[in-house]
Amino acid sequence: MKKLLLSIFLLSSSFAIHAGEGQQRLESFLDELSTMEATFMQTLHDARGELVERSDGKLWISRPGRFRLHYTNPYDQLYVADGEHIWMYDRDLEQVTVRPQTEALGGAPALLMTASEPLADNFTIEELGQHEGFHWLELKPKERDSNFDFVRLAIEDTTLRAMEMVDGFGQTTRLLFDDLARNTRLREDTFHFTPPPGVDVIGDY
Questions:
Q1: Are the C-beta atoms of residues 175 and 7 closer than 8 Å to each other?
Q2: Which DSSP symbol is given to 6?
Q3: Beta strands at 123-131 and 95-100: parallel, antiparallel or unpaired
Q4: What are the φ/ψ torsions at residue 30 (nearest 5 degrees)?
Q5: Can you tell me the distance from the alpha carbon of 196 to that of 198, in angstroms, rounded to the nearest whole number?
Q6: For residue range 55-102, what is the model confidence (pLDDT) as tens digits?
Q7: DSSP label at 75?
Q8: Residue 160 and residue 29 in contact, taking contact as beta carbons nearer than 8 Å
Q9: For burial by CB atoms within 10 Å, which of 14, 46, 71, 195 has the most?
């Protein structure tokens, strides 16, 4: 599935930050987070840094364990995690794939936003410093079979503004969040999915 990630600048050791401040801000953001919705721009860069793809969409999260990710440009694809399964719907192909949520996500960055466990349980956290008003953090998964090498996060005050993931092939997926709203009331059916009539469904549920 598409990887949830985002933007970063090249940070140098000259950027100063109080020890643990970025992590405290991130943990404060997550501790106080029950729901979230935001628009996003996502880019994918290859190992040489060349732009491969750009897409836009909207994200909804309800903790713990549920999210809805809707890509609207340049294609229409929908991902819904209902707490038990993740549904992947490609409107152009008229195809739905469904898998157990724990199997589909594994150590994916989506778990950063939806899991209820402390970050330190699953990631080694490094403070990268402050740049252009953002506190930057790098999180490396403790699981060896993770599908990414590390994630970098940008925090402004106590709000997440950007994510970036680098995978084992050197590809970088970046997301920039906009119009982010926290702890608003979301409709319950936001995290429900029923395959439309006539589409092919791959997987059991």
A1: yes
A2: -
A3: unpaired
A4: -75, -40
A5: 6
A6: 999 999 888 888 899 999 998 999 999 989 999 999 999 999 999 887
A7: S
A8: yes
A9: 71
Sheet holding 159-166, edge to edge: 123-131, 134-141, 150-156, 159-166, 172-182, 35-45, 51-62, 66-73, 77-81, 85-90, 95-100, 200-202
Q: For residue 55, give the H/E element and its range.
A: strand 51-62
Q: Angle at the Cα of 101 (from 162 to 191), degrees rounded to 5?
A: 70
pLDDT tens digit sequence for 146-201: 667 888 888 888 788 888 888 888 899 888 899 989 999 999 899 999 999 999 99
- The topology under which CATH files domain 21-195 is outer membrane lipoprotein receptor (LolB), chain A (2.50.20)
Tokens of 172: 């970088």
CA distance 11 to 187: 40
Q: Locate tokens 């909207």: which residue? A: 58
In 3D space, the residue among 85, 121, 120 whose CA is nearest the CA of residue 202 turns out to be: 85
Helix (H) or strand (E) holding 165, with range, is strand 159-166
Task: Please provide residue 16's backbone torsions phi and psi, each rounded to the nearest 5 degrees.
Answer: -95, 150
Cβ-proximal residues to 34 (8 Å cutoff; 6+ apart), any chain = 62, 63, 183
The reply to whether omega before 64 is within 30° of 0 (cis) is: yes
Is residue 183 within 8 Å of 37, Cβ to Cβ?
no
| Domain definitions of the chain by residue range | 21-195
Cα separation, 162 vs 41, in Å, equals: 10
Residue corresponding to tokens 């429900």: 192
